[in-house]
Every structure is written in C-alpha cells, then in structure tokens.
Specification:
- It comes from Leifsonia virtsii.
- Belongs to the 'phage' integrase family. XerD subfamily.
- This is Tyrosine recombinase XerD.
- The chain is mostly helical and 301 residues long.
- The chain is built from 14 helices and three strands.
C-alpha cells in the first residue's frame, strides 16, 4: 500500500467516521500532501519504513525551510496532523509501532484574543447604518455576529429557517454540531429589517436558495465577502485597528465575561468543546480589571 493510499484512507476516516468538517479535512489533506511529498523525496514509499528519526528530520525540515516558511502555529498544526495520521495507521494495523508517538510540536506562546471595546463595536455597527439593500444586509450580518459570537463559517452557513421565532438562532459549528444562541433586541431588529426590506430584492437576482445572507447577485454570501464587509465598515468607522470576523467573536466573549457571565455559559454560546479554550478570555478580563484597579485605587501604585 502506498503512502498516498494510506493518506486517502485516513482522510475518509476523519470525514466519515469522525464527522470532521470539510474545512478541517481539507487542512489535513494539505498538511499530509507536504508530508507525503517529503517522504517521497527521502525515498520512503511505505509508511512502515518511517522511524522516529525520520519524523525528527521532517520536523527539522519544516522548521528550517527557506521556501514558504511556517509560523510556529502552522508548524504545530502540521506535526499534530502527522501524529494523528500515524496513530490511525497503528489502530488500523498498517504499522506495528507508532513512530510519531514522541513527536512534539514546538511550545507556542500563549496569545490573548484580540477584542475591541464596546465603544468601538458600536462605532463599527453604526458604520453600516443606511437604507440601501447592502446597508440593511451588512447591518444584520454584523449585528448577528456580535450578538451570537458566530464564526464566519457559521454566519454564512445560516439559512432563513435557522432564525427561530426572531429571537433565537441555530448555529452549525465544527463537526456539524448545532447550538442555539439567543439574539439581542438590536440584532433582532436588524435581521427583521433585512428579511423584509432587503433579502427579497437580493433573492430575486439569483436562483432560489435557503441562505440567510445573500450577495449582491443573489447567491449565498461567501466568507471572503464577510471579510470585505467588516474591513470596509472598520474603515468608515475610523477605528484605527485591524478588525476581522473573528474580532467580533472575541469581543462577544470578552464583553460577556466582563459583564459577569459565567465562563461555562460563554463556552456553550461559543460552541467550545472544552472550557479550557474559553478560559483564555478570562485572562483578557483580568487584565482589564487590573488596569482599572491600578488607575482607580488610591494605594494601587
């Protein structure tokens, strides 16, 4: 069996049996294409011939290559993919020893999520005010993303039927896991205005689709479209900081925790499988509290 055949078997496994998203499977495919290409250059045609030394050499190659150098996070992800691949080979009986068992990605520095202030979010949302079709759509999109903490893929994947009784939305996250998230009054008003006054106009320009957010030609809005919409709104608002779809998600979580929300409630709203992922936001809140304390307490300095 060739390395390529083993990779195909692994990708089928994670897609069908583990139910991972198409984006995750595509990322695995890209990582293993790099790994398989390197093995071929080394003359390795069967994964059974791979040893811990082979994998160590591969890790060194990734960390030192001059062409298309990897960031620390990309290197960690790629090595994690390779480890999962070899673990699968052991479980399937293709190899007798997991050669990647001791392969460890580099330790990444902990990075705090970048959030913008409540005032900056308000300015960003105000930059979408208007009565044009695009304005109504953009307002509904950004209000919904900030109200729910939706990932950009979740927002563009929404269908009209996913808005339930106007005040609740059903988001489909990683691994096709669904969660119900409430919509605040501002998001409700923006989405309702879009559905009544803008979406029918956009829908008439294209083929019938259940998608909630539509592009100017009537097709489902793309993730790239959302990036451009948010970037344009940030420029109009003159925020002076880089804003992305994930910035709204980070701000959603940070503002909830700063307002007193329980971390496990925020975990559910974000769709995190582990509370440890959500707890990174508590560090942001702690930093904010520390700054306020130092500036406000008479004996803090």
């Amino acid at each position: 069996m060739t390395v390529a055949a083993d990779v195909d078997a692994f990708l089928r496994h994670v897609a069908i049996e583990r139910g991972l998203s198409a984006n995750t499977v595509a990322a695995y495919r890209r990582d293993l294409a790099v790994y398989g290409g390197w093995l071929e250059q080394q003359g390795v045609v069967d994964v059974a011939a791979v040893t811990p030394a082979t994998l160590s050499a591969f890790a060194v190659h990734l960390g030192t290559r001059q062409e298309s150098p990897l960031t620390a996070s990309s290197l960690a992800r790629m090595l994690s993919t390779v480890r999962g691949f070899h673990r699968f080979l052991l479980e399937e009986g293709r190899v007798e020893v997991d050669a990647a068992r001791d392969l460890r990605p580099p330790k990444l520095p902990s990075r705090l999520p970048k959030a913008i202030t409540v005032e900056q979010v308000s300015a960003l949302l105000a930059a979408t005010d208007g009565d044009e079709v695009a304005d109504l759509r953009d307002k509904a999109l950004l209000e919904l993303m900030y109200a729910t903490g939706a990932r950009v893929s979740e927002a563009v994947g929404l269908n009209v039927d996913d808005v339930i009784d106007t005040d609740v939305v059903r988001l489909t996250g990683k691994g096709s896991k669904q969660r119900i998230v409430p919509l605040g009054s501002y998001a409700q008003a923006a989405v309702s205005a879009y559905l009544v006054r803008a979406r029918p106009v956009l829908s008439a320009r294209g083929r019938a689709t259940p998608a909630l957010f539509l592009g100017m030609r009537g097709a489902r809005l793309s993730r790239q479209n959302v990036w451009l919409i948010i970037r344009a709104a940030a420029e109009r608002a003159k925020l002076g900081v880089e804003v992305s779809p994930h910035t709204l998600r980070h701000s959603f979580a940070t503002h909830l925790l700063a307002g007193g929300a329980d971390v496990r409630v925020v975990q559910e709203l974000l769709g995190h499988s582990s509370v440890a992922t959500t707890q990174i936001y508590t560090l942001v809140t702690a930093d904010t509290l520390r700054d306020v304390y130092v500036s406000a307490h008479p004996r803090a300095r």
